[in-house]
Amino acid sequence: MNAHLRGSQPSDLPFLREMLYEGVFWRPSANKPSFEEGLAYPDVQKQLAGWGEREGDTAVIATIDSVPVGAAWYRFWTDADSVMGYIDEATPILALAVHRDHRRQGIGRQLIMWLFDHASEHSIPQISLSVSKDNVAIHLYRTIGFQEHADRGDAFTMVRST
């Protein structure tokens, strides 16, 4: 499916938060935290804290009939302040989520490729991510060139050159 892609705007932050929740709590579970509860977890909360205020914060939104259905973004972190997927200060970490009704239609691939094009245009040499080993998205990441950089037990840190 071909979704329309556009760079994010400040007004997209609530949708990015929604996608962050979807991305972190993707597993079906009876114990899944509520939206606000899940986003309050310290490691989750910091993902979008001060979004747009940091140099390099970049996001893309996928829409179908003007309705947002997915988002991907990357952000730079530091040795002193990082999240899962961190490699170094020169490598932004990618996050991706697509609404469950629109998954497995190529939208995630489109979002990631948009970010790779943007990163390449801005001389960013590589992007990393963290993915649980049981997440089906790992197949997508591998098919578009991500390679395992570190094995963290239940998840991989993966990296791809732009």
Q: Topology, pairings included?
A:
Layout: E1 4-7, H1 13-24, H2 35-40, H3 42-45, E2 58-64, E3 67-75, E4 93-98, H4 107-121, E5 126-132, H5 137-143, E6 147-151, E7 155-161
Antiparallel strand pairs: 1-2, 2-3, 3-4, 5-7, 6-7
Structure class? alpha+beta
CATH architecture: 3-Layer(aba) Sandwich
Q: State the fourth-level CATH superfamily.
A: Gcn5-related N-acetyltransferase (GNAT)
CATH topology name:
Aminopeptidase
Number of strands: 7
Report helical residue fraction.
Answer: 25-40%
Estimate the global geometry from the Cα principal axes.
Answer: globular
Oligomer: single chain
Order of helices and strands: EHHHEEEHEHEE
- Proportion of residues in extended strands: 25-35%
First and last CA, distance: 24 Å
**How many discrete domains?**
1
Q: In DSSP terms, counting alpha (H) and pi (I) runs of 4 or more, how many helices?
A: 5
Largest beta-sheet characterization: 4 strands, antiparallel
Strand order, biggest sheet?
Answer: 1-2-3-4
Low-confidence stretches: none
CATH class: Alpha Beta
Explain what the structure shows.
The protein is α+β, with helices and mostly antiparallel strands and 162 residues long. It contains five helices and seven strands. It has helices at residues 13-24, 35-40, 42-45, 107-121, 137-143; strands spanning 4-7, 58-64, 67-75, 93-98, 126-132, 147-151, 155-161. The protein has a four-stranded antiparallel beta sheet, with helices on both faces. It has a three-stranded antiparallel beta sheet with strand order 5-7-6, covered by helices on one side. The radius of gyration is 15 Å and the shape is globular. The two termini are 24 Å apart.
